[in-house]
Request: fold
Amino acid sequence: MFEKLFAESGLSLDRLKAFLEVGSAGSIVKAAKSDPVRQSQYSRQIKELENFFRTRLMERQAKGIRFTANGKELARLSRFFLLGLSNFQRGCLAEEQIFRIGASATFIRHFLVLALSGKSARSGGVRFATEVVAGEEIERRLHTLSLNFGVVATRGLLTSP
Reply:
């Protein structure tokens, strides 16, 4: 079923992790925290992924690196896959699950704090973390899986005939 994926070298969890770190940081230097050995390693790992998929995944821009269209899709798939593995591991180890909720400060203060302070919100090894996030940023954060839930205000949805 997955024979073609494993027929040649170049794909690994370490390479996908490095790819996501560089994309998130916006540059190899920032992702590697200025460590020249790690910079070389990240550069090589991204090149190996590009060779494996036979497509450009990142492109240089004036102040760093950004994902190509194919790179964005691989990043989305990789985040989803690695998050699933991480959640599976936490479940196997009976570790606490943390769900991140992004919303406006007002919504968090007036609604979420009250709702999440109840006893049922703290049971079963589940914890909720709230983050103040601007409405336009919530969709991006949901897409990158750095938020599990997002609450946005909408206006003008109700119209009268």
